[in-house]
Amino acid sequence: MHSEFHISQTDPRPMYLQIKEQIRHRIAVGELKSGDEIPSIRALAAQIRVSVITIKRAYLELEMEGVIQTRQGRGSFVADDAQLGDSLKEQELDQHLIAAVQAGALAGITGEALLERLREIERIQGKRQS
Amino acid sequence: MKSSVFWSLVRKDLYVLRGFMIATVSVGVLSVFLLSLGRIGFAVGGILFLTANVASGIFIAMYSLLTERKDRSRAFALSLPISGAGHDQSKLVSGYLAFGMPWLLLTGIAVFVVLAGPSGTRGMVVYALMIQVFVLALFSVVQASLFVITTEALSGIVILFTNICFSLFMVTVNQPQITAPLRTAQIVWTPFAQRMLTGELAVIVLTLAFVAILTSRKRDYL
Amino acid sequence: MSTVISTDAFTMQNVSKSFRYFRLEGLNLSLSQGQIMGLVGPNGAGKSTTIRLLMGLLQPETGSIQVQGHRMPDQGHVAKREVAFVSDEMSLFTTATLEWHMRFIASIYPDWDEVYARQLLKRFNLQPKQGIKGMSRGEHVKSMLLLALARRPRLLVLDEPTSGLDPVARHELLSELMQIVRDDTRSILFSSHNTLDVERISDQIAFIDRGRLVDARDKESFLERWRRLSIDVPAGVTLPRLAHVVDLSLGERLATLTTDHYEPALHSLLEKSGARVHEVQRMTLEEIFVASVMRSRTEGES
Prior knowledge:
The complex is a heterotrimer of chains A (130), B (222) and C (302). By secondary structure, chain A is mainly α.
């Protein structure tokens, strides 16, 4: 079954963004699969006690981004895209990589030096997990 | 045609006031019983009878209008599907019913006691009616004034005024020249009695008209 | 917002009302069906007056008021069949029990849902046989909310519903409020000092101060338009004149700018003058509210 959504009002990210990211993450890890039904806007609003307008905004943006599809009278569903899970995982990776590049710039580590550092860390992580 | 909300509120008020109503009737019946127990019994019974009537009138008028305001339950009553005027009218109706029903009973008992008593004093029925209708008029005045008066201080003055009026009335009506013509076997509507009763009924009608005008002009209810 | 009167939960057009020491002026406020509106304002701003006008308890001096399509206050007795009103200044009849009140309300409102009422008794932790007189303020408020919710109103009007409620009861109330708007023909208006709750569940938000409507729009617009910027101002740089500046505090090297019309273009405008935007902060509804009111008061005084 599905885990609960949780919206934090102390999180610096706005509520609509938290909702979007939680839906994307569920798709990325496979808890929600292509074609799965997601709660209607009003049902989700009641579930997590967040205003309908916020849920509407999140769903609208997710639809424009091709992540979900809303069919009038039928409800909302995860987009029929087999690659969706993977592409969302890649998008999550990109977010982290952007942060790494920015941090690297601040520390003066860019280009080849940055790549080297990344490979080193990958090696260490690999050792830790085996 | 009044709505069911209107009558629900009237029923609710009568239910809340049932204690007063029962107490009034009980004291009234007791005092009538005392009337037959010799001179002191007659005096005590008489006073008790009148007190029960007047006190019940004041308590009932005050309870309906003032405690609901203090209680803030007026706002709750006004949130129901009833107009502000309808709510005011329900208070008026329940007040008159809560006072009027025991009053009618006690008046009936008083009239019966006089008519069933010594045949030589049957005329005192007029005396009993003058007093009873006076009490009803007094109730009307108190009820009407509490529609306008909202502070506890002023309502205290109203009660004081009521007591003074009643005392003056009793002194007036107990004068020998008033009561003597009534101690007859016949029922005589003396000129004094006629004027008094007409005046009392006029007061009742005027106060009702006053409240009717007030409730139709009022627009702000909270 | 809908312009078709008959589908609005309520409409107030150019409404004014004077009292001895206070005046509510030119109020224009409306709510579409299926939405929640949060009314925020300092004490004495006119929130309760607005709500009383809406409920037909006061007659407006100017303007018109419609609730569920009915004209107020004339059609008040009809409108109130579909509206439930709970105020923190209201009490139930102290001589009765909660059970009595449930029967009383059930006899008046045909949509009374007994099953739902029983569920609410459990959720709000109330004892039906308990007398109103012996209840704590919290229990009293919860009782009034139960009576309002279980009659399944089309419009629920709440004046400070969470004052006096413990956190659990507040959580339960917010859940019940959100359940109401699962039905897109039902609406809620609530006034509250609890800006966190207002920010969370409101679709529309209105700010009232000193008898005037300071601002009213949908919540997401409020949250998207307002920003606080930290700006580095190097020596010799003067900030350009900008539109939509609600507040600006200037130090020697730093400035804090509050704006109600944030756009990315603002960055380039500032950078052109030699300043650098160090940080852009979103603002909470409470911060937006305070800034709005402060500005409105300053404008009012000048």
